[in-house]
Hints:
Blueprint: E1 14-17, E2 21-25, E3 28-32, H1 34-44, E4 49-56, H2 59-70, E5 78-81, E6 87-93, E7 99-103, E8 122-125, H3 133-145, E9 152-156, H4 166-173, E10 178-182, H5 183-192, H6 200-210, E11 216-220, E12 226-229, E13 234-237, H7 250-263, H8 268-283, H9 293-300
Parallel strand pairs: 1-4, 1-8, 2-6, 4-5, 8-9, 9-10, 10-11
Antiparallel strand pairs: 2-3, 6-7, 11-12, 12-13
Helix pairs in contact: 1-7, 7-8
Amino acid sequence: MPADKPNPFHAPLVVGLGELLWDCFPTGRLPGGAPANVAFHVQQLGIPAAVVTRVGTDPLGDELIAYLTEKGLRTDFVQRDPVHSTGTVTATPRPDGHTDYVFLENSAWDFLKGATIPHADAIVFGTLAQRNEKSRRAIYSTLRGGLPKPCLVVYDINLRPPFYQAEWIWDSIAFAQVAKLNDDEARLLAEMLSIPTATPVEVAQRLLERFPQLELVCITRGGHGAIGVTRTETAEVPGLSVSVIDTVGAGDAFTAALIAFRLQRWPLKTTLHYANRIGALVAGRAGAMPDLRGEIAALKAEPGWITFR
């Protein structure tokens, strides 16, 4: 469907803006890319989702588009690049549960063009897709003039060394109502803010002070749970015991749930509780986009789950 036609969905639409790529594990390759992962999990939660990205006119790009289409995501905003190849990243899980990444440079998503999205209730973007000036300008252009109003803008800080600069982070937060980061990223931001001994809550509070449009900062802490801070409330949930397969995409699943529940105006503590559980489900499975429909159906049957409107 052309991007300038009205959106056929009457339900909320969530858009992932940025990289779509193949995560290449020692055991094989699986679809990935943080904004695409978020869109995938939003779709599993029952909210229509789309991806704004760029892939090559190659078999790897064909496969990614086919995969997302099969899973029910909109792909009419996916651009095709006849010059640059579909992105890949070598993902090597470590014994401590973390993963080392080596990204192919000059991938198709590095040359993303700005988009006009006529209907979206929320959009999520990150930092990695900003490593190339062309894609960074395209992301900012889309956020500045390509979105309907109102639209919830979520910045998943998601730092992948060496592909970030402080300037990009501050410019990006200035677009967002919600910022999500992990505890390692909170420590980096504390240093950038010249408060190296700050707690995660203090980092969140400083961001809320610095950026007046920001409404919520969420910090995931792995086995220590998650924290959410607004201008009037601080909530925390404990970590969960998980047999970790790999952590790839776990934070993205948390972000997906955060967006879905924010759109439904869930209470902050309930939002963190279920977002943490959905992130943990991904950590216990291989790859960033595991099928969690059965597990999500079980969560929806719990008394604490608030039925989506």
